[in-house]
């Protein structure tokens, strides 16, 4: 197969982890006889510096004309004081919106060999295998108005949680589709005791659930979900939720695996290219030092192969290589026990490639 991949390295450790992922994709290309063509484009702080905006039009065009998009991370202290519309994160939200990527999939599965890196007890996290499905193009992060204004001589501020019913329906359907090839359980997370938007969310989940009679549907309030994720994460299969709830819960869930540096994500729409990225940020504290853990970005390419290209065997091969590398004790600094040997980004990438081959 021939596939065109747009690469958005972004800022901080973004270029380092993306380079690692590209090497792994090239190895997959050789091993399975595929041709991956990489086109680089700018997003985030680097785009602000070079083009004056976080998401240049040219980047949107290149992404739209490709089969898939690989992203590192954006942001950093250099751009922290710019006005909201010029922040690097605006570029990220913008490209998700432009590509209509309404579903963000974040799988969280613990590697038994890494359980010591988690702050939770081994018996709580061993065997965790869940998928957070976060709505990505609506909800509180996109609703208008989102502004400060003056009322009765005082500053007031408003953000808006806005959804069309169809937007809720399509993300919940996606969760049921995913659950149907997993352990057949959907937990719909909301705040229906307080928010009207959540009451509609719950109604829609019930309606969609009727189309999938063999899948168990449960509703859970977001505050309880946050607690249950730590208390007993093994109870979850697929969790589906609103944009901001999903943002928070998925970072919480990342700690089940011990490090942000381990977790991949996929953002997909109904058609067109998907966007694959690690869930961590640009880690300015370790940028440029060859210290970043590349495994989340490498695992994101496995998701790309699986969800955008239908290459199951290739995706499995990457995930197996990552597991074997970890089982054999290789660690980057973020997941190493104190006093143990630490690999840098390039060495860890080379190990994954060695096990792939
Ligand atoms: P972060 O994820 O960048 O870093 C949090 C901590 O985790 C840091 O100590 C960092 O060194 C460590 N870490 C993260 N990824 C790692 C990896 N691959 N290997 C080893 N250690 C890793 O979050 P932050 O510090 O809150 O944010 C830094 C910048 O990144 C900010 O500008 C923020 O806006 C941006 N950000 C971007 C994204 C994105 O591009 N998707 C997501 C989150 C944050």
Structural topology:
Elements: E1 2-10, H1 14-32, E2 35-40, H2 45-51, H3 57-64, E3 68-73, H4 88-98, E4 103-109, H5 122-125, E5 129-135, E6 139-151, E7 154-162, H6 165-180, E8 185-190, H7 196-210, E9 216-221, H8 222-231, E10 238-241, H9 243-254, E11 264-268, E12 274-278, H10 295-307, H11 312-327, H12 345-356
Parallel strand pairs: 1-2, 1-3, 3-12, 5-10, 8-9, 8-10
Antiparallel strand pairs: 4-5, 4-11, 6-7, 11-12
Helix pairs in contact: 1-10, 1-12, 6-7, 8-9, 10-11, 11-12
The structure holds nicotinamide-adenine-dinucleotide.
In words, what does this structure look like?
It is a single chain. The protein has 357 residues and is of the alpha/beta class. It is built from twelve helices and twelve strands. Helix 1 links the parallel strand 1 and strand 2 (35-40). The protein is globular. It has two domains: 1-109 and 259-357, Isopropylmalate Dehydrogenase (3-Layer(aba) Sandwich); 119-256, Isopropylmalate Dehydrogenase. Strands 2-1-3-12-11-4-5-10-8-9 form a ten-stranded mixed β-sheet, with helices on both faces. Strands 6-7 form a two-stranded antiparallel ribbon. Helix 1 runs parallel beside helix 12, helix 8 (222-231) packs parallel to helix 9 and helix 11 packs across helix 12 (345-356). Residues 13, 17, 73-76, 89, 92, 260-261, 277, 280-286, 292-293, 296, 334 line the site of nicotinamide-adenine-dinucleotide (NAD). Nicotinamide-adenine-dinucleotide is lined by residues 13, 17, 73-76, 89, 92, 260-261, 277, 280-286, 292-293, 296, 334.
